[in-house]
Design goal:
By secondary structure, the protein is mainly β. It contains no helices and ten strands. A hairpin with a 5-residue loop joins β7 and β8.
């Protein structure tokens, strides 16, 4: 697996930040117990903002994970790319 970028996600139950490394079709997530878990596409996210056709507080399916600049992680949803910072991962 080629490492593209490092980011974080939010556990909806415990409100902690977990670190992850991505490839195009999965995330390696280090959870609060410091265990590595692979989250494969498709996975579900909850939108935190309204962005174009994305409505706030709706659940969406991530088809692919990308990074164009090496620092900003993008989620492909319904064929379009959105910054991961607008979403919280629901499936951990």
């Amino acid at each position: 697996m080629a490492t593209i970028a490092i980011g974080s996600c939010l556990d909806m139950e415990d409100k902690y930040q977990a670190q992850f490394v991505i490839d195009p079709f999965s995330l390696l997530i280090v959870d609060k117990k410091r265990l590595i878990k692979r989250l494969t596409c498709p996975f579900f996210v909850l939108s935190s903002k309204e962005i174009g056709v994305i409505k706030e507080n709706n659940i969406y399916t991530v088809e692919m994970v990308m990074s164009y600049s090496g620092s900003d992680i993008q989620f492909k949803i319904s064929g379009l790319s959105y910054s991961h910072s607008y979403f919280n991962i629901l499936t951990i």
